[in-house]
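Title: [Solved] Hydantoin utilization protein A 3D structure

Original question kept below for reference.
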Amino acid sequence: MPRVRVGVDVGGTFTDIVVFDGGLRVLKVLTTPKRPVEGVMNGLSRALGTLEGVEVLVHATTIGTNLFLGQVGLQAPRIALFVNEGFRDIVEIGRQNRPSLYNPLYRRPKPLVPRDLRIGVRGRIGPDGVEIERLDVDAVREWAARLCREGVRVYAVSFLHSHRNPLHEKMAAQAVGEACPGAYVVTGHEVDPQPMEYERTSTTVVNAVLKPILSTYLQELHRQLRDRGFKGVLLVMQSNGGVAGVEEAVGRPAAFIESGPSAGAVAVAYFSRLQRVDRALGFDMGGTTAKASSIIDGEPEVVDTYEVGGRVHMGRLIRGSGYPVRYPHIDLAEVSAGGGTIAWVDPGGALQVGPMSAGADPGPACYGLGGSKPTVTDANLILGRLPDVLAGGLRLSRRLAEDAVKGRVAEPMGLDVVEAAWAIVRIANAIMSRALRLVSLERGRDPRGFTMYAFGGAGPLHAAELAEEMGVSRVIIPPFPGVFSALGLLVADYKHSLHAPVARPASSVSQDELDRVFEKLRERADEVLARESVPPERRIYSMMLDMRYWGQAYPLRVPYRGSLDDAVREFHRLHAERYGFASPEEPVEVDVARLEAVGLTEKPVLQKPVGAGEPAPRRAREVFFEEGWLETPLYRYEDLAPGYRLEGPAVVEAPDSTILLPPGWAGVVDGYGALVMERR
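Solution (posted by the thread starter after getting help):
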């Protein structure tokens, strides 16, 4: 019996499922936002029936983000925060970043913990980890008992310098557990043992908000999977591009917030290595948003801090507008432009696209599920770019699409329906190009030297036109583009980032001492990977040091290869490269020792089904391009054999997506089943 691996990616509009059992099978079903487990189980039933033979199920979900932002009808739980006396306002004061510098009406995001639930208690650990004042454990216990009677079941504990000595946090957590049995308790030293108390406290609070939500969801999902015969391993995608077990997800839920988008970037990285593409742009357009990423030498870019619930402007996360979470995550630019994004006319008579989305319920007007507002999908249907039946068997109504566009866009603007639909598509493309610019031009990289990978249910439909706008001459549509992120779940490795504080001048740290720090980190990593059944021969470790000149606020990350002296020299070199100068005479401080542990997973071997040698178009239809209406041949993706060449204009209808080749573009199918498109 073949080993079966399954990837499930729950998006805002569709739930994508990929099954690998020697071959690949894919399925798209509508997401059920208010009952996310129901949509997953419905999709698995259609894709597999029984789950008895499934060895591994890898899951990506936006439930953390959606619930955090209140988008699925559930509220964040009431939580209490224990801090040192005099520090109860730390989550409100923050870093005083002003995302809108010249806006006198700007209001900071509301703290996740109201002031009456932020409790300051006596006790202090010094910056060297030495206890200065004993913790008032009785006060912690009394407050927890009182709050428990008031219905508070989630507690965050974040004390000063707990990364150096977690004694007080451990004592407080134990006291809370005794006073409020069954409560969720999250401590700073467990979720973010690093310097800087505000970032550590914010990370602790966000984890506390998400912990009951994600743990309840995963427990319910696991229970229903077991009821259907699942006896395998359930894994969850992390924001850093690696997978981890459920235990890790429940312990650090904030590390899994961007799991779905990260899976897409991992899939691009995997394919770029297979196809020997050194510089790639990932473009993922789904039903709600579009996301862009950059992949250099087969690796996605990763950053250390992310702001949950932050506002996005022109694809850029506005710093200071959300709640900092200090976990590694793949660097993504995201804009509110997807297939379900709503078009509307503002009071000044200008056409706008987004940020509102019709989502899966009720969805675009053409779905016939009760939606009446025009969306990007409705516009594409009017322009002849979409088939009558969408992925998953959903039948589309051109009449409903035309009615929505006519009544809410065309007539108010004095346009005919086709002109209005074309305007909607062009504005959506302009919005999405911002995300691509952010990960290329604004990083100092010329996009003309990149290859674009376009995926998601709507990505291949817009890819060529976006590439022309960006000056990109080569676009690759991977196999199964509509569920490509779910495929990324099956090629992701286990990945864990561990760290330990050092916080001392490099001159006072001995080589033996540093080696012992990394030895302990490796022991912890081995414990985690062993729980996840990763054999020793499939484990890879990378060591790094966060270093800075004495008195600097923020460190640089330096590879550590077993020699502290070499690391100091590398720090000076990197500092000169980054900031234009180095000061070898200045003392260097070692802030944090870091270890990244990777457990290699087995990757599916992708094989393209053999199609006809010279497939004839199934038929042709009128499709609207910049040149106007053109008779355009229609092909089925399943019929295209490796080596077959297409000339634009053409439409390729895949089971999970639709690919558009405008005039002036040509495409050839490679040995992996990808359609490689180039401008002529």
